[in-house]
Amino acid sequence: MITRKEAKEQGLKHYFIGQSCKRGHVAERLVNCNHCVECLKENGKRFDEANPEYDKNWQKKNAKYLRDYNRKRRYSEPTRPEPDNCECCNIHISKLRTSLHFDHDHETGKFRGWLCDRCNRGLGYFDDSIDIVKLLLKYLQK
Questions:
Q1: Which helix (H) or strand (E) holds 113?
Q2: At a CB cut-off of 8 Å and minimum separation 6, what does 93 contact?
Q3: CATH assignment of 77-140?
Q4: Nearest to residue 123, comparing CAs of 87, 92, 93, 97?
Q5: Please, where are the H alpha helices in the chain?
Q6: CA 34 vs CA 21, 40, 50, 104: distances in Å
Q7: Of 18, 19, 24, 20, whose CA–CA distance to 1 is shortest?
């Protein structure tokens, strides 16, 4: 048995206190929301039965639509159309496995440019920090 607090401190996703939930299940619970795992399964089954037309693969099939929709909700609009090359390393989109990424300032949400996956991840790894990038450049110039 482990409490929610202990599980959270240990970085676990589930915990078990040996007490029943309000529906009578004695089962693990999720640390992040305190829900009983069995209740969540039952809720999922009920939803599936009530919504047979629901397509579980809809999100995969509509990934581009969802990405664009969420981008519009959270960030400013791009100030220029998506180019054929990454605006950082200049690699052409024909050499990429994915489309260019909409880069934005994480504090303001303002659009910065269009980046390939490698450049976008690189910025993320360095926390968009100019100081870290300068240190990296200094290191490479040794």
A1: strand 111-115
A2: 84, 85, 99, 100
A3: 3.40.1800.10
A4: 87
A5: 4-9, 37-50, 58-61, 63-74, 117-125, 130-140
A6: 10, 11, 25, 34
A7: 18
Residue 84 main-chain phi, psi, to 5 deg: -90, -10
Each residue's pLDDT tens digit, 92-125: 988 988 888 888 887 787 888 999 999 999 988 8
Tokens 């950082």 -> residue:
88
The pair of three-digit structure tokens given for residue 57, joined into one six-digit string: 């693969």
pTM of the entire structure? 0.47
CA distances (Å), 28 to each of 19, 44, 45, in order? 9, 17, 18
46: tokens are 């009920």
pLDDT tens figures, 26-47: 999 998 888 999 999 999 889 8
Amino acid symbol at 122: G
Dihedral, CA atoms, 35, 38, 40, 45, nearest 10 degrees?
-170
CATH 3.40.1800.10 residue ranges of the chain are: 77-140
